[in-house]
Amino acid sequence: MSPHATGRRRVHRIAAAGAPLAVLAALATAGPAAAGTPAPAAHVTRTATLGDIPLGTFSNALLPGTVTDDRGVDLGGIGSDIYPAGRKGEFWTVTDRGPNGQIKVGGAKRRTFPVPGFDPAIVRIKVSGDTVKVLQAIPVTTASGKPVTGLPNQAGRDEAPYSYDAQTPLSYNPDGLDTEGVVRAADGSFWLVDEYGPSLVHVSARGKVLTRYVPQGLNLTGTDYPVVEALPAVLLHRKINRGFEGLARLPGGDLVLAVQSPLSLPDTDAGEASRTTRLLRFSPKKKAVTAEYAYRFDPVEVVDPSEDDTSELKISSVVAVGGDRLLVEERTDKAARLYLVRLGRAANILGGRWDDEATSPSLEQLADPAASGVPVPAKRLVVDLGTVAGVPGKIEGVALVDRSTLALVNDNHFGMTDGVGAFDAQGRLVDSGVETTVTSVRLPQGM
């Protein structure tokens, strides 16, 4: 049998299994193109840009009086995730915790929040031509309707918050969320993931936090909404600012949560050097984690040939493609790759030795987890976005539009840069010029 026939047979089996996007599997399994025929390539078909909307105007229209001075910052950061809204060209997106940066003071970095009154929001957008329009915005609020804000939760665990110039300490807020992923449930409510806890957050259709699910032992108190310790305690070892980043909703309603980076287990050095992070499966019906998987990054120089620092590897998006299959985005700030992954039952490590922080070496320390007996889900490359002309950097959200089209959204960081030059002498933003864009990418067909 020829390699071409073998490839076709593999594609057929995947399609028969019910995957709605057989073309994605075909990209990973099809044989080479016929001699003399150029292989089709993924390409950008459209780029749409979000216009300038003053952040104070946006925020105060949702929750009056929350932002007294936006320091010249426009709405941005909605590229934390993207999820189809059911109508052509429309998507749900979510902001992160708001404008933030880092400034060194006395040799130590301080986390700044130039607009501390900003409240994370779920934003419905429409891509029309080369423009991204805001159709609806839903503020994320506490049980009593107050803004959750994007401020850190706990002293000693989260970075201390400071004013825009890193000179004035700000208060922690146990209600604060650094939202990074969004999906919409069949009943109209939303699920979000957060980096601080890390946590999974169930939000009503109007934006009220119904329940925040956090790791066992987090001991988060003083919140104005219910907190349930339903996630594995091992997640307490998440790297700062690298909690949950990706969120997918499987066809049956279960959720898949991605830890952005390897855990700092047993210590920071182990996490920085590791290429193994974790995916969790959560059942909204059972209100519990039902499976956990060890996900293995490719070497950083494979994902991004310009990078040699393993700690720059991140998962920023996971997308359900049918059954128990996912698209997983591995990225640095400059490049990204999408892989097709199957979460089989045999790969479940939940509740085993790898969830015990006393295990030595830890999962994160294993040079080759599979060789050490860890069931690592197999993956197949779908597309290397770093080779597709016109795809911007820092892609944090991926959505499937149809059988052969992706929608990508970038995180423009609200136009902020790090360092003392982020704001001028009057405390106004020196804009980076990076815009929020939704980029449509057509994948090859006919494989």
Helix content: under 10%
Beta strand % = 25-35%
Mean pLDDT: 91
Q: Describe the global form.
A: globular
Describe it for me?
This protein is mainly beta. It has a single domain (40-442), classed as Neuraminidase, CATH 2.120.10. It is 9% helix and 34% strand. The chain has five helices and 24 strands. The strands form five sheets. The chain has an eight-stranded mixed β-sheet with strand order 2-3-6-7-1-24-23-22, with no helix packed on it. Strand 9 and strand 10 (190-194) form a beta hairpin. Helix 1 (3-16) packs antiparallel against helix 2. The protein starts with a helix and ends in a 5-residue tail after the last strand. 48% of the residues are buried.
Throw out a few tags for this protein:
34% strand, single chain, Neuraminidase, 5-stranded mixed beta sheet, disordered N terminus, 8-stranded mixed beta sheet, mainly beta, 447 residues
Helix and strand arrangement:
Elements: H1 3-16, H2 22-29, E1 43-50, H3 55-62, E2 82-84, E3 90-94, E4 101-105, E5 108-112, E6 121-128, E7 131-139, E8 161-162, E9 179-184, E10 190-194, E11 199-203, E12 209-215, E13 227-231, E14 244-249, E15 255-259, H4 268-273, E16 276-283, E17 288-296, H5 300-303, E18 314-322, E19 325-331, E20 336-342, E21 379-384, E22 395-402, E23 405-410, E24 437-442
Parallel strand pairs: 1-7, 5-8, 12-13
Antiparallel strand pairs: 1-24, 2-3, 3-6, 4-5, 6-7, 9-10, 10-11, 11-12, 14-15, 15-16, 16-17, 18-19, 19-20, 20-21, 22-23, 23-24
Helix pairs in contact: 1-2
